[in-house]
Amino acid sequence: MICPVCGRENPDDAVTCWRCAIEFAKLLGYDFNEKKENPSTKLNQGCLVVIAIIFLLLVAIVCFLPSFLVVDRNRFTSCEQALAGLKVAEEMYITDHKTYLAGNGASLEKLGMYMISGCTNPKGCGKQVEERIGTPKNPKYCEDFAIKSLNNGLDYQITGTARDRNKCKICVNKKGILPNLYEDCYTNMVMKCP
Fold it and tell me: Where are the domains of the chain?
């Protein structure tokens, strides 16, 4: 087929040849050398930047959050172990004296005989107990811990607050320890005793 504009042989079945079509487009102002930027390219670049920022934030959370949780869990466990040590001493004391101790001052000294190996003083080893678990006024592992005698000395309750960020409340008696898992501190901020 012959192009009606230039008269050359047109191998395609188009109305005009490709040379004439380019010339016509140039007359209309289209520049074939100018690169047209796709409008979605800027949107794609913006999305990539946002995704990169979110990724960096997630990496920071994954890297640093567990360290805070480990510190809190360790503080909870330390308080729990200190109160469990007092529980064992209370259980040993009742086998010798047929009653549980109450109060913090003299009770801690008397329980020291059962907590500190090598303590043979019948009045107890208060200084060593204070070094091990602290005092209510100067806590080492637990804040505001207290020993209460219940049912005329036939039962006891040891309470304390862990020094973690949540101030997890721990209760110990002869039935056990609550909460027994640190994760339970998040769900129940009220002290319960077993």
Answer: 1-36, 41-187
